[in-house]
Protein 1
Amino acid sequence: MRDITLSQAVNEAIAEEMRRDPTVFILGEDVAEAGTPFKVLSGLVEEFGPDRVLDTPISEPGFMGIAVGAAMTGARPIVDLMFGDFIFLIMDQLCNQAAKTHYMSGGKLNVPLVLRTNLGATRRSAAQHSQSLQALVAHIPGLKVAMPSSAYEAKGLMKTAIRDNNPVVIFEDKLMYQDKAPVPEEEYLIPFGQANIKREGRDITLIATSSMVQVAEKAADILASEGIEAEVVDPRTIVPLDEDTLIKSVKKTSRAIVIDEGHQSYGVTSEIASRLNEKAFYYLDAPVTRMGAMDVPVPFSPALEDLTVPTPQSVADTARKLCAGELVHAA
Amino acid sequence: MPHDVTMPQLGMAQDAGKIVSWFKAPGDAVAKGDALFEVETDKATMEVEAQADGFLSRVTAAEGDDVPVGVVIACISETAGEDAATTDTAPAEDAKTRPVQDGMSLPEGDTVTMPQLGMAQDTGLLVTWLKTPGDKVAADDVLFEVETDKSTMEVEAGRDGWLAATLAEPGEEVPVGDPVAIISDAKPDAPVARSVKNGAKAEAPAKAEAPAEVEAAKPAAAKAPAPKPPVPVTTGGHILASPKARRLALEQGLDLGRLVEAGHPQPFHVSDLEVLRRMPERSTSAAPAMAAVSRRLTAKAGEDGVAGFAAWAADAQGLTGDTILAGLAGASIGSAVTVCVAVERFGDLAVFAVPPGPALSRVAPSEEAPDLLVRDLRGTHLASVEMGAEDVPVLTVTEAGGGLQITLECAANSMDGAAAIRLLSDFAGRMEQPLRHLL
Amino acid sequence: MTDSKTNSEDYLRMYRQMARIRTFEDTANQLYLSAKMPGLTHMYSGEEAVAVGICEALTDDDRITSTHRGHGHCVAKGANFREMFCELLGKEEGYCRGKGGSMHIADQSHGNLGANAIVGGSMGIATGSALRAKLQGKDDVTVCFFGDGATAQGLLYEVMNMAALWNLPVIYACENNGYSEYTKTEEIAAGSITARAEAFGIEAFKVDGQDVLAVNQLTQKLVARCRKGEGPFFVELETYRYHGHHVGDINREYYRSKDEEKDWKTNRDPIIRFRAWLVSEGIATEDEIDAMNADIEKDATEAVAYAEAAAYPAAAEVDMHVYAD
């Protein structure tokens, strides 16, 4: 086992799959020599050539549509969407075309593509480069959505995504690219729909996605010093969602907070909280509580931006209240 | 400004109402909202409240009068200066009265005394006069109301004549047996209204208590108040508790209501069940509340069968009316052993041992504590009673129309509903047809 | 000239395909007018030479992407009446198991990547198919059908740009029928349509879309060049749709005169024209053509009857095929 960065993990996954399957190719902006502005794909064009690592013009709808067509006819493209915020540009190709083709064709056409993009604020990139839009695509039947929380998840989930015959959207937290984690050298895949219990606890379940997993773990440390044992669960993929693991955890602890960096309203936290409400109702000693980013466009100023996202302290505060029988979102 | 009191609109089709009783006497201070008088409609009797503060004056309608809707029957004036009989606008039958001065002699006539009211009572509080000095009275007219320690009682004139003098003012305590009024044969020239303390200025009349025996009145405070179970301080009476707490409480047979009664702060969580588990065992949470609730049942007998029977029984068997009552009541309990029944009438109390069986001759006086009290109010003007539960069940007999109304009152835990119903039914049946008893 | 016998077969087949499209559309229109068809559909009648002329230059390996007005492309690329009518009626035996309908009809066994309800929605798909061919060293060609109205979609310029940059084997076929829904093309497309492609360095051609032979000959040339890596190409085909934008667009005089319609139907009908040519060239007699037409009619009648009687998909299918295995 060696420690590698999330960036390296993604790179390894893609390279391994491109070696394995010649139909896999990459297209996007600045993916070739530049290896993307985040340098995640460095070295790939050197190994696989410009035919398989394709720089595109700044035409998100165009190259997304091209990816759909290529996928429909026998290739397995990986689309690099430089910022998750640009999902809005490609919605028709992603949600009307890619997501629905298999269904509309009665199961006869497949769209095996991966859309690789990112999320996450607190980089001072302001409102149009800081959004976490996983809820938008999770809402569309036909798409799968993966949210790696560390280098280990990133590699395993990417490999699974490339081999999946469906359109898969993978969100990486752009602030985590240099974060290291132990990653096996041997090949491994992380299946979709399998949550990971990162830390066991008795008193409250913290369900967190992407970098919020680290936030939850730090919150759990704070709570542990106060005698409150938090269980931290990483769903890894929100579509498909491993409900069983989440429900089992909440039944054990009787309390849950769902933490996601999408906006609090109408998002991932709401969906997961609703499912827990429906399926674990009689085990709840506290309402399942959402913690998302504030319902504001991400502000530029550092003084403001950091206020808009869950932090270990705010998660710990919320957990403490719930354990004490207090409501967090009181009427 | 004086406020007119009118006969109110009672119902769509009704254009007159009969005054059943006044709760205030002329000159009484009234507060807005006080019950002023009671009027009979075709559906029920209705209390009419005072619509202003002041003093009741210029009363022009008496009990029993039919008054058309909208007619002014009294006035609430700002000062106490006007009492019932001083103005020219008062109806003709009100004669002028003037306060009695020291040394003035009383008119001639029969004295009406403060009656014996109850076993332990020495004085009675005169609540209100229903007749004014100078009024013509009939023997069974109600002359005044007196408050006992249990309730308010009407006292009738007892003889025909004219009310020549009143010797106590409303609000005054009069010892039992003391004179309170004088009824003369002839219309007095100078009717007298005097207070107990001769020569003392008329006291401001005490506020009249709402009579508890008024038929069909809304349940008043005379009923023994039952301590209500503490209502949870939440909307709609919900108990706030987490789903898990509820489920565990249900599974473990714990009653969240006990936490509520104990005032434990809501919402309840699983940890609060610990408090609940540590609470002492209770048979039923309802039991204490029940003890304070009383039962009141009424029955009607079409005729007073006992009156005639008693006359014969006195002749034939030397049985007194009390004995008969005790025997009939005791038998109605349906006990297999001797029961002890007390009979109370006009302040006299007699206790009897009533063995099981139909033979009234075996009813004998007793010194034991009674199991049951029969309060015989036949011959008084009391129509119905609501006295609340006493130490033993009480059967009160009053006259109603040509027959009797019999009221059973007891504490809820002294007998269950079925037993109360049986007791009253049997007794009422026996009162109506005593010969049934012999069967 | 090439072997006339072979060409005769080709010509007869071209005629047959055009007649089949016309018959299919007439029948479909009747299904709508008699309230038997769920939803709406868009008639291709009048444009037969475009689809047929182009598709006859393609093999089953070559791909096409279609538009909301997709029955013509579907028939031209080799689809059968029965499965097509089943799809239009939402029956299980339809090409898409009833789950796509008229606007998403696809027949991948013959290389039809599907009709698309989004105007211009399949431009990316067509270009991507061409990219895949190039990447995988295949020589199949993809034709992207779209209308004059779709030239207003930004996606067209994005994909033409990339197709030109990467020399993709794609032919952009603009079926200019003079109207973008209810608006004349000249009111929605500034400048020249072919100039748009030329701006990207793409060779652009204009052709009479009612002349099936002209269309076919041009397409054959361009397909051959594509296979050699000389693509992409752009073709603007001047044509006309006889019906309204969709089957419900019946009272359309406010945007299109009856005289104009009559003129196209009478003087520029591709089927009448080609029939005349076939007869004059001695390739077929009137009787033979009538017999062919009768055959096609019979085929359509039987196919419709079959489709009307066919079963709907089972309720359990509603949530099948959301995800591929």
Protein 2
Amino acid sequence: MSIVKRMLKNAQTSKPVTLQLTAMVDMFTILVVFLLKSMSVTAIKAPPESLRLPTSYTGEEPKEALLIQIAPAFITVNEQQLVSMENGKVFAKDLAKNDTYLIPALEKVLLAEAEKSKLVEKKTNALVKFTGTVFIQVDKDMDYATLKRVLYTSSVAGFGDLRLATVSGGE
Amino acid sequence: MSLIEDIIYKNGNPEEDMELDLAPLLGLMATLIPVLLLATAFLKLSSLNAKVPVIGEAQAAIDKNVKDNEEKKIGLYVLVSGENVVILNLKEDEKIIQSSRVPATSDNNIDKDMFISELVKIKKANPSVFRARLNPTETVKYEKIVGLIDAMRVGPKNQEFPVTDKDTGKVYNTPVMFDDITFGNIMGADE
């Protein structure tokens, strides 16, 4: 009997093939459980790809606060780009003329945010207090010079309680 | 023939295994997995500069000591130069009480081991000091600053330091070294 004939005969006599899905469902269940476990419920946004955070071993769970991101090419507040930079250096035109540590564009936005928070504090009868907390995400290769200018501008605008974002190194 | 026999013999063999239709479940999983993959943050962020959580009453004792440090104007001043040399000055009312210098390693890096051992020495001699001021020069990389903060906040593994509650006189052991860290030179001049 030729192979073709044998195959035809087999096809006529054999039962319809059913796909075994049990193993696949098991695998998917494990995957879903793993993903649910590693899902983060924090409102803190992850930094963009261009911003690599340093690792720390003593950090604690971050709390939601005004977010400042300092990457080699930009400074943002709540993901709104305010200042462009080159290799992590603020251009001289973006610094105040009478105070080379102050970044006016950043100060303006921070003052507005402080004003907004103080208004919320007033309207909620101090239920939501203005604490002057900023959560700063800084690229690990940045020089302290830029961070220093951002810290100075923040403190001028009333944000003195700073939290530095890091990647948790365990332990 | 009874109705039951009719159902059994006409509608199927009672000995044949019933198969569960897993296709809808698979469809649900295939939808859930991409949604979860998008919503999952694999990077675990943490926040530095907040106080290290300490179990029980030791934190209250630390807080009281920090307040006392502020009143006495006592604190550890850490100066980090661009050449990776670290100078540690323990000051009380602007006067240097204890000082040490950590030279850079041969491959021009901060000598972290020596830095930690100097910190431990200062902490052991002054267990009530928790306040520290970090003064890096402008060329120091942020990653190095975070490394120094890490080393300053908590001591080496299995090492604990006594902290006395100023009110009760009770002594607690804590791994916390210099928990109250601030950047001291943001106004320009190095301290």
